[in-house]
């Protein structure tokens, strides 16, 4: 009976996985199809996923498009997402450490105010943030893309919960050995929080990689635009060039997959090296 249950569970999981992966496979296969073949095969058969006529023309038209410099979009997005991720990890980890381990007046009240910001939808702050960027003269600059994204309330909350699990005895032992508070934070607390830091880093990088509305508002210079806004330029009042859209989405997905595959090993290693309980 247990074996039958395991088999049924495995079959259900495989079906769910196929349903989840099917749109991605269709996107990738569509990127290799000529436009006239894209919506020709809609019934459930092998050609729904496997193109009849393979072509690299869609990728060529996207990469070497003089009107929409797609490689420049990728570079801009990679630069902004990387800088934001680094700043988020530095700033939010220090704030989370303060809330988790330090004592200062009104700490509970300040933390409650931070948490209350999580219930405010991002769309509500678009206009005030835009006006602030305008008054500072930061429109059409990387500063408008980077600085407003440096602080993550959710990131502070997540890291605080993780830092709170670090035994105070370890910090006290480091203090007795002569370690300063910054050194204790760097050598004791941060290594124990590697899984949480990598998780927050991946979420931050992915969020900035997929950012659309904010770059659309604050960036008008095409050479500084982000990748998701760049993909949207393949749609116009005349219609949507779905072959280019699928090719562009496929190209934009590759760096994220490579980043996840690269960091997955470090994520597992971080869990192994951070066994501080007990």
Topology readout:
Blueprint: H1 2-31, H2 57-63, H3 70-101, H4 107-116, H5 126-136, H6 142-146, H7 153-163, H8 168-176, H9 181-192, H10 194-209, H11 213-218, H12 227-232, E1 235-236, E2 239-240, H13 242-273
Antiparallel strand pairs: 1-2
Helix pairs in contact: 1-13, 2-13, 3-7, 3-10, 8-9, 10-13
Descriptive key words:
single chain, 278 residues, mainly alpha, 1% strand, disordered C terminus
Give a short account of the largest sheet.
2 strands, antiparallel
Oligomerization state = single chain
Shape: globular
Strand ordering within the main sheet: 1-2
Estimate the mean pLDDT confidence.
84
Number of helices: 13
Measured between the Cα atoms of the first and last residue, the distance is 38 Å
Give the radius of gyration.
Answer: 24 Å
Strand content: under 5%
Structure description:
- The chain has 278 residues and is mainly α.
- It contains 13 helices and 2 strands.
- A two-stranded antiparallel sheet has the order 1-2.
- The longest helix has 32 residues, at 70-101.
- The chain is globular, with a radius of gyration of 24 Å.
- The model is unreliable at 270-278 (pLDDT under 50).
């Amino acid at each position: 009976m247990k074996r039958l249950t395991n088999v049924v569970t495995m079959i259900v999981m495989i079906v769910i996985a196929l349903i989840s992966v099917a749109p991605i496979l269709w996107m990738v296969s569509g990127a290799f199809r000529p436009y006239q073949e894209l919506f020709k095969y809609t019934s459930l058969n092998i050609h729904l996923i496997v193109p009849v006529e393979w072509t690299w023309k869609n990728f060529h038209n996207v990469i070497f498009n003089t009107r929409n410099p797609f490689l420049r979009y990728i570079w801009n997005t990679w630069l902004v997402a990387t800088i934001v991720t680094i700043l988020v990890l530095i700033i939010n980890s220090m704030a989370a450490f303060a809330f988790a381990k330090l004592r200062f007046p009104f700490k509970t009240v300040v933390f409650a105010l931070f948490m209350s910001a999580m219930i405010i939808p991002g769309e509500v702050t678009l206009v005030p943030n835009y006006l602030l960027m305008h008054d500072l003269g930061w429109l059409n600059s990387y500063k408008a893309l980077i600085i407003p994204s440096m602080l993550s309330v959710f990131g502070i909350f997540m890291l605080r919960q993780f830092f709170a699990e670090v035994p105070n005895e370890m910090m006290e032992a480091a203090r007795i050995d002569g370690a300063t508070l910054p050194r204790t934070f760097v050598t004791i607390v941060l290594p124990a929080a590697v899984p949480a830091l990598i998780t927050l880093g991946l979420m931050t990088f992915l969020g900035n990689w997929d950012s659309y509305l904010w770059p659309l508002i604050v960036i008008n210079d095409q050479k500084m635009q982000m990748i998701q806004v760049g993909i949207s330029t393949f749609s116009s009042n005349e219609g949507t060039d779905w072959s280019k859209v699928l090719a562009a989405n496929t190209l934009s997905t590759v760096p994220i997959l490579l980043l996840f595959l690269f960091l997955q090993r470090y994520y597992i290693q971080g869990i192994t090296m951070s066994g501080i309980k007990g």
